[in-house]
Amino acid sequence: MKYLSIWTPCALAISALLVGCGGGEGGGASAPPSTPTPALYGEALEEAETAELVAQKGFNFGTDYKVDVSLSVAEPAGAEGYLSLYTEFDAASGRPDYASRIVLSTLDNQGGYSHSMRLPNHVTQVWAEVWYRDAPTKPLKQMLTVSNGVINETL
Predict the structure, then answer these.
(1) Pairing mode, if any, of strands 150-154 and 64-72?
(2) In what helix (H) or strand (E) does residue 9 lie, and over which residues does it extend?
(3) Which of 46, 116, 139, 151 is deepest in the core (most CB within 10 A)?
């Protein structure tokens, strides 16, 4: 019984609201009849079929390209070094977008890194950071530019 006494006023209020807001031709304002919008330009162009599309000879449909990376540190800290490469960064502030990291690797014994990788076609520069876990040196940070599929830099 208690359940009915709680819901009865709510049900009556909702019913009254729905009945009071019924359709019909109540107000005086009505929308003007719609008319088709005329074309802005002359005749419509014929759409090409997929089979009719032709790419130029030698067109590359690839979405990425190979890059040979060769990096070295001018003054290695003598401790184990790490390299991070990023595709998104703000060069002015020296901050990469950490979600865009594409390489995390250790440096070799001479403080170098040599590897091939693939980059998306729109990426022509990467941000490099070299840091040492047990050395009191600050991380080395530098923007690197891809030139003819090669990055060859000394940090």
Answers:
(1) parallel
(2) helix 2-20
(3) 151
> Could you state, in order of their start, the residue ranges of all structural domains in the chain?
64-154
Instruction: Pick 64-154's CATH classification: 2.60.40, 1.25.40, 1.10.3470, 3.30.160.
Output: 2.60.40
Tokens of 148: 């003819």
65-95 in b/e form (b: 16+ CB < 10 A) is eebebebbbeebbeeebbbbbbbebeeeeee
pTM for this structure?
Answer: 0.63
Rounded CA-CA distance 82/137 in Å is 13
